[in-house]
Specification:
The complex is a heterodimer of chains A (116) and B (298). Chain A is mainly α and 116 residues long. Chain A is built from 5 helices and 3 strands. Chain A has 2 domains: 61 residues, Winged helix-like DNA-binding domain superfamily/Winged helix DNA-binding domain (Arc Repressor Mutant, subunit A, Orthogonal Bundle), CATH 1.10.10; 45 residues. Helices cover 54% and strands 7% of the residues of chain A. Chain A is extended and about 45 Å long. The two termini of chain A are 23 Å apart. In chain A, 34% of the residues are buried. Chain B is built from 11 helices and 3 strands, in the order H-H-H-H-E-E-E-H-H-H-H-H-H-H. A 3-stranded mixed sheet of chain B has the order 1-3-2, sandwiched between helices. In chain B, helix 7 packs antiparallel against helix 8, helix 8 packs across helix 9 and helix 9 runs antiparallel to helix 10. Chain B is elongated and about 85 Å long. The chains are: A mainly alpha (116), B mainly alpha (298). The interface between A and B is large, with 54 and 75 residues. Strand 3 of chain A pairs antiparallel with strand 2 of chain B, so a sheet runs across the interface.
């Protein structure tokens, strides 16, 4: 599947945030799968680096990147402030999922436990 | 003609009754567009009918009545006075509802600004470092996908791709606008309030189908939804904010079935019926104008 530069950035940034440690392009490659070339990932990381969204891991391994936390923490603070307001303005945006009752929860757990 | 003016009212009730059926039978993208278009046509006719009904009070103005009496004209009374008065009250309620909608839109706009403020404008993904699993689309130019670290860490790489594709579908297909339009329709025509939930659900289904196509895997798309829903359910239990919602289950079930088939004929029928409503209301307008012309003083 062809992905735009912006979509690749989101994919790589998402993988970096999901990881506990800094990742090298090779590690990102094996994490995201989907047949992305090493060069593609490297170029995407370079772009994210230029935008100041990721940094090179200072104390860790050469070639590994991690996401910048300062902006994400400020954004989280803004989100929590908004959630505390009444009515919560975030509820007017389109959410991926909403809440669940106990029965629904069981049904979804069964689905995930099933072997593919 | 006296009956014509009540057609938008009946149409609103009918549309509310038909909308769950439309939502169930048609592919989500078609169904959402059909419902939004039908609700706008009906709501516009509804407001105009209110204006016409309130306008019939004109002939009861003392000057107009005295003048007509002096010229030995019989005063036509197309609608009972109580209905005309009720439509004025309803008009005030509609105005208040529109004002409330404008206010909440302003809040949403401010929120978008604070949530996107710190991030680079040209990155699609906005990450919040938070333990609360959340993900939503922030429409705008450019639009953004907002997601918390708790959500990113709770999903695997394939499931994260589903999430991104789902939110992108909201942005690319202007779901924010469609939702605003149905909100406007429901604000001016309270009988259309039930449609809002149907359209909201259809927009989610639309984005799910888009994500299933983009990732090429309906099963992973269903799993991603289930996983994300369970993540947020756990978080809600911690904050004691749990509320039941069947929507996710219905969306997961739909993804485990074959994709819905297009239903152009049905879509055309619903839109055609909705188009008739403003035509009839316009016809009623002509009749009201004729009436007033007759009793116009002088």
């Amino acid at each position: 599947m062809r992905r735009s530069a912006g979509e690749l950035e989101s994919q790589v940034l998402g993988a970096l945030w999901a990881s506990e440690k800094a990742l090298t392009p090779t590690e990102i490659q094996s994490e995201v799968g989907g047949g992305l070339a090493y060069n593609t990932i490297h170029t995407t990381l370079k772009r994210l680096y230029d935008k100041g969204v990721v940094v090179r891991d200072a104390e860790g391994r050469r070639g590994a990147y991690r996401p910048v936390t300062a902006t994400a923490q400020a954004t989280a603070e803004a989100m929590h402030l908004a959630l505390e307001r009444n009515p919560d303005p975030i509820s007017s945006l389109q959410h991926f999922v909403s809440g669940l009752g106990p029965d629904e929860e069981r049904a979804l757990r069964d689905l995930l436990d099933r072997k593919r | 003609m006296v009956i014509d003016v009540y057609v938008p009212l009946v149409a609103s009730l009918l549309l509310g009754a038909v909308s769950p059926l439309v939502a169930r039978r048609m592919p989500p993208a078609v169904a959402a567009c059909v419902l939004v278009a039908a609700s706008l046509l009906t709501a516009a006719s509804f407001v105009w009918a209110l204006v016409l009904l309130a306008g019939t009070l004109y002939e009861d103005l003392p000057d107009v009545a005295a003048d007509a009496h002096a010229r030995h004209l019989s005063i036509p009374d197309p609608v009972p006075e109580i209905i005309a008065q009720a439509s004025i009250v309803l008009g005030v309620i509609v105005a208040l509802r529109v004002a409330m909608l404008v206010r909440s839109q302003r809040h949403t706009r401010d929120l978008k600004r604070t949530l996107t403020g710190g991030s680079a404008a040209n990155t699609e993904l906005i990450v919040a470092d938070s333990e609360e699993p959340r993900a939503f689309a922030i429409p705008g130019r450019p639009g953004h996908v907002f997601v918390t670290t708790a959500m990113l860490r709770g999903l695997n790489a394939a499931e994260r791709e589903v999430l991104l594709a789902h939110e992108r579908a909201h942005l690319r297909h202007h779901h924010g606008w469609l939702r605003l339009l149905v909100d406007v329709a429901a604000a001016v025509d309270p009988l259309l309030i039930p449609l809002r939930g149907d359209v909201e659900f259809l927009l989610e289904r639309w984005a799910d189908e888009h994500a299933a196509r983009a990732t090429g895997d309906r099963d992973i798309t269903a799993r991603a939804l289930a996983r994300a829903a369970l993540l947020s359910a756990n978080a809600q239990r911690r904050c004691a904010l749990a509320f039941a919602d069947q929507a996710v289950i219905r969306r997961v079930d739909a993804l485990r079935n074959t994709p819905p088939r297009p239903a152009r004929a049905w879509a055309a029928i619903v839109v055609a019926c909705a188009l008739v409503v403003p035509v009839i209301t316009a016809d009623a307008t002509g009749d009201f104008v004729d009436l007033f012309w007759r009793i116009l003083p002088g």
